[in-house]
C-alpha cells in the first residue's frame, strides 16, 4: 500500500528556508521503486538548487539526494530489488536509457538530465522518494547508513575523476576545498596512492585534513605557500564554489596538467597560462552506474569513512545554514524523524 501522504521539507521560492510540505505519493512507474528514507546527506548542490543557481529549480522544491532507505514498493518491471531491501540513491534517480550517452553507459550525461534528478518530482528531505530501480543501489551489509548516504553523491563525484584522470601511477594531486567532497577526495586519493596536498581557505582544518590522509596542507590565500608549489601538481580537483585566485591556482599545475572542476565557482582564467602550459580543464559530473557500484565496493574494502554530523531531519534549516557558513565537519546527514517513516 502506498503511503497516504508524504511529508517533506520544501523551499517555496528562491533562497527561502524549507517548510514542512505534504504531498500525494507520486505514481510508481513500471521500473520504479518507492524508498522510505532513513538518512539523507546535505550536499552543497542542494543549496545551489534552493537558490536556483542552475536556473532549473521549480518550487515547491524538496532537495536531498544522498539518500539511504528501505524499498517499500516495487514496480512491475523493476528487477533485482524487493520490499525491505536497504538501498542508496544519489543525485541521479533515472535516465532516458535511449540517448547515445545512456546507451554508452554514461547515464550521467543523459540528454534528459534535468528530468533525471532524484529531486524530480521531490527529493530526499522527505519520508519517501520514487526512483527508477536501476538507480537504487544495494549497499554492502556492513556499511552504516550514514556512511553510504554521503558516498552516494560526494563519494562517487570525487572517486570518478580520481579514477579517470590519473596521468601515471603516483601522481601529485591538489585537492582544493576540504568540505563534504574534499575530505572524501583526500581519503580516496590517498588509498589510490597519490601524493595529496589539501588546499583550503580554512587554516583550522589542517590537522583533520592530515588525518584524512593529506601529505601536505596549504592555506589558499597564503601566497608564499602557494608559490612553493608552482608547477607542482599533475592534477587539481576543485571542490569549492567560493572565490578562487585562479592565476595562482592554475600555476600550481605542471605543464600538461589538468584541472578538474567539481564545484561551481565563477571561473576567470588567463588564456596565456592555459595555452603556454598546455593545460586541460575538465568538468566532471557525479559518475555513471558502473562507477557507483565500483566506488561502493572500493570504499567498503578500504574503509573510506566520511566524517559525519548526524542531525534530525526536522532541523534541516539549521543544517543548511551550517553548510552555507562552511561550519559542517565534514558532512551533515539528516536522520529522518518525520511522520511516515517506515511506511
Ligand atoms: P561543502 O561541503 O560546502 O564544501 C565546500 C568547501 O569549499 C568548503 O568546505 C570550503 O572548504 C570551500 N569554500 C571556499 N570558499 C567557500 C565559500 N565562500 N563558502 C563555502 N565554502 C567555501 O560543499 P560540497 O557538498 O563538498 O560541494 C562542493 C561543490 O561541489 C559545490 O559547488 C557542489 O554544488 C558541487 N558538487 C558537484 C558535484 C558534481 O557532480 N560535479 C556533485 C556534488 C557537489 P575550505 O574551508 O577547505 O576552503
Ligand atoms: Zn550532491
Ligand atoms: Zn539518456
Would you spell out the secondary-structure blueprint of this structure?
Elements: E1 6-11, E2 18-23, E3 32-41, H1 44-50, E4 66-74, E5 86-89, H2 100-103, E6 128-132, E7 137-138, H3 145-164, E8 172-176, H4 180-191, E9 195-200, H5 206-212, E10 216-219, H6 223-227, E11 233-238, H7 246-250, E12 253-261, H8 271-276, E13 280-283, H9 289-302, E14 308-312, H10 316-324, E15 331-335
Helix pairs in contact: 3-4, 3-9
The structure holds NADP nicotinamide-adenine-dinucleotide phosphate and zinc ion (ZN) (2 copies).
NADP nicotinamide-adenine-dinucleotide phosphate is lined by residues 43-45, 48, 153-154, 157, 177-182, 200-202, 205, 239-242, 262-264, 284-286, 323, 326, 328.
Provide a descriptive summary of the structure in words.
Helix content is 26%, strand content 25%. With 343 residues, the chain is of the alpha/beta class. The strands form three sheets. Strands 3, 4, 5, 6, 7, 14 and 15 form a seven-stranded mixed beta sheet that branches. A six-stranded parallel beta sheet has the order 10-9-8-11-12-13. It has a two-stranded antiparallel sheet with strand order 1-2. Strand 9 (195-200), helix 5 and strand 10 form a beta-alpha-beta unit. The N and C termini lie close together (8 Å). The mean pLDDT is 95. The chain binds NADP nicotinamide-adenine-dinucleotide phosphate and zinc ion (2 copies). One zinc ion is lined by residues 43, 45, 65, 91, 153.
Return Rg in Å.
Answer: 20 Å
Integer average pLDDT: 95
Largest sheet: 7 strands, mixed
Number of helices: 10
Terminus-to-terminus distance = 8 Å
Give the tally of β-strands. 15
Shape: globular
H/E series, N to C? EEEHEEHEEHEHEHEHEHEHEHEHE
Unreliable runs: none
* Ligand set: NADP nicotinamide-adenine-dinucleotide phosphate, zinc ion
Q: How much β-strand is present in the residues?
A: 25-35%
| Helical fraction | 25-40%
Structural class: alpha/beta
